[in-house]
Amino acid sequence: MKKQFIGVVAAGLSVVLAAAGCGKGSASGDDSDGKTIRFVAAIYDDNTKGYWDALIKDFQAKNPGYKVALEMVDWAQMDRKVQTYVQTKQTPDVLNYNAFSDFARDGLIYKASEVVSPQVLGDFTPTFVAQAQYQGQQYGLPFISSARLLFYNKDLFAKAGLGGPPATWDDVKKDAQKIKAAGATGYGLPLGPEEAQAEFYSWAMNNGGGWVDASGKWAVDQPANVAALTYLRDLTKSGVTQPNPETTDRAKVFNQFAQGRIGMAIGGPFTRAGFIDPVNKNLNFGVAPLPSRDGKEHNTLGVMDVLAAFKKNGGKNREAVRRFLDFFYTAQNTSKFLKLEGFLPVTKSAGDALSSDPYMKQFVDALPTSKFAPTSNPAWSAVAGAVKQDLGSAVSGGDPKQVLTGIQRTAEKAG
Amino acid sequence: MDGVTKAGRDASRPARLPGLRRALAPLPWLAPALLLVGAVVLWPVVEMVRTSLLDISSSGTTLGGAGAANYTDLFDEPDLWPVLGRTLLWVAGVVVAATVLSLALGQLLHARFPGRRAVRWAVIVPWAASVLMTALIWRWMLDNDSGVINRVLLDLGVLDEPVNWLAHPAQALLWMMGVAVFVTLPFTSFVILAGLQSIPGDVYEAARVDGASGWTTYLRITLPLLRPSLLIGTIVNVINVFNNFPIIWSMTQGGPGHATDTTTTFTYKIAFFDKHVGESAAMAVVNFLLILMMVLLYLRAVRRPGARA
């Protein structure tokens, strides 16, 4: 009986240990020699995994003894996974993400100069270096970028008797009304929880608004922003947008745009390959600067994703990380990724290749005047989250000023 | 075996040790289960409470203790009370509707009719399908420009123009409750069917002999004898519906704004949109206490009158 008892307890214990073990097992790689690194990459589309598989194979062949374990994560899962990695101390060695500054604040990641060669460091376009800094030091490694412009359907514009794309907000409204009269939706406004912050900022910045004031303090409820949101609400109320912008995501807007049912919408370089071509390759559309309130200055929304390298095992992983990153940042490897995914370059050396495509060239040309979300502020991710949840309610019955004040409160609370 | 004999001889310690032995004897068989319960049930609860008392930065780094700060942050949220109210409405609405419908459905399945087997299978189907899939299908059926529900209502002339059902909080909530009832029905009606089948036939015979009407028989005999089944069904449903995430998340994400959030989606949003893990854990603790309270209240309410019946 004693034997049985011990056996049963042992069996029970081993179950428990196994259950506890799988939580930690895949973890930190403390036992590794520092030559195997874990790379968490974001899934941009169906081609992404194939690209990394090939790149890693190539890297391992050229760097004997070094290994990269690839983990692909869907963007929809990304925030949740990243937060869990950090919280359970299972951070990857290299992470492909859209934020880095709270990692820098909490001392989790290397400075850029510690993990790439000076040559790579000098190759980044200055605009992006500025976006990749936290307290004056570069932590993020610019990875891809994109810019937003106004897409318009030329056939619908002709049918509505319109010449070119609108330059001012008044034009947008008038043109949208004419398009509506011609039987389509005037302007496609995605203010649903997917990317409300990008759509809103595209309008706010062209009224002199933004997320922070000149001194870098949060200014979400500044008058220029309230005016921009009031304008969007006015567009919605006058019925020239699709119904219920507060629950609409980009994919839906561009699906309908591709079907020729929407006159105008804001999109990026990836919009053609990602949204329009799969639905209608022959759509007759044009791309124009984002309309501004007075029509004089046109700002472009810039977006940048980064790679960040996490400190682990007292820096034992640094050499492997540096080798891998230097390998990725060769002109050949980066430009291959950009072409495959339809993004804009962040390095000078990968730049020119894309300008040969007239569609892409418009976005490359818009980059120098582009404005970015304050990603170097560690509170930005919390603010973006609040915007995604709440901004849409301002056009569906809420009060723009009140909604923005609520987001301002979240911003101040987050730091 | 030595201890038993000794204790047996020693008159001053009458059989205490064997008693303890007997009490501990089942332990070897229970231990694995107890350990598992500890690891799978208790440990997460402890961890949840611990997290709710920690100061965790937006990146996920633990910065130390937070005292009650996460709880004060939580109770300062202007959306908290509406969310709690909506959660109770959601649970009560779905469970009551599902139970009433299941009583009827259970009765139907209990009756003898040709093709009963096929009907029983049909009732199981929503249970077999993934909840997420069902919710997504409904979401697309309710879509305002390509949804089949708008199409049908337009063609029938009920509507003049398509309605974006899920963009209006009240309508969205009703539709989601409908979906929740739909996926809750199979389990509940089969629990009730099992209950119906356990009622002996002679009880009904006696009722018939006494001249009781069909309705009286149902109220006086069937319902009271169904009490154990209803009890189990309700408790399981309350917990399930309370914690239901996929239906709400896939149909409205709790939006627009927070207008269709329940505590479950609200917890998720605090953690992964507001990046406030500590406060989210506090919400989870509140959620847990609410469930515990509801189940205890329900058990008391149901036990009190003639618990032995």
TrEMBL record, chain A:
<dbReference type="Pfam" id="PF01547">
    <property type="entry name" value="SBP_bac_1"/>
</dbReference>
<protein>
    <submittedName>
        <fullName>Maltose-binding periplasmic protein</fullName>
    </submittedName>
</protein>
<keyword id="KW-0732">Signal</keyword>
<feature type="signal peptide">
    <location>
        <begin position="1"/>
        <end position="19"/>
    </location>
</feature>
<dbReference type="InterPro" id="IPR006059">
    <property type="entry name" value="SBP"/>
</dbReference>
<dbReference type="InterPro" id="IPR050490">
    <property type="entry name" value="Bact_solute-bd_prot1"/>
</dbReference>
From TrEMBL, chain B:
<dbReference type="InterPro" id="IPR000515">
    <property type="entry name" value="MetI-like"/>
</dbReference>
<feature type="transmembrane region" description="Helical">
    <location>
        <begin position="281"/>
        <end position="299"/>
    </location>
</feature>
<keyword id="KW-0813">Transport</keyword>
<keyword id="KW-0472">Membrane</keyword>
<feature type="transmembrane region" description="Helical">
    <location>
        <begin position="121"/>
        <end position="141"/>
    </location>
</feature>
<feature type="transmembrane region" description="Helical">
    <location>
        <begin position="88"/>
        <end position="109"/>
    </location>
</feature>
<feature type="transmembrane region" description="Helical">
    <location>
        <begin position="230"/>
        <end position="249"/>
    </location>
</feature>
<dbReference type="InterPro" id="IPR051393">
    <property type="entry name" value="ABC_transporter_permease"/>
</dbReference>
<dbReference type="GO" id="GO:0055085">
    <property type="term" value="P:transmembrane transport"/>
</dbReference>
<dbReference type="Pfam" id="PF00528">
    <property type="entry name" value="BPD_transp_1"/>
</dbReference>
<comment type="similarity">
    <text>Belongs to the binding-protein-dependent transport system permease family.</text>
</comment>
<feature type="transmembrane region" description="Helical">
    <location>
        <begin position="23"/>
        <end position="46"/>
    </location>
</feature>
<keyword id="KW-0812">Transmembrane</keyword>
<feature type="domain" description="ABC transmembrane type-1">
    <location>
        <begin position="84"/>
        <end position="298"/>
    </location>
</feature>
<keyword id="KW-1133">Transmembrane helix</keyword>
<feature type="transmembrane region" description="Helical">
    <location>
        <begin position="172"/>
        <end position="196"/>
    </location>
</feature>
<protein>
    <submittedName>
        <fullName>Inner membrane ABC transporter permease protein YcjO</fullName>
    </submittedName>
</protein>
<dbReference type="InterPro" id="IPR035906">
    <property type="entry name" value="MetI-like_sf"/>
</dbReference>
<keyword id="KW-1003">Cell membrane</keyword>
<dbReference type="GO" id="GO:0005886">
    <property type="term" value="C:plasma membrane"/>
</dbReference>
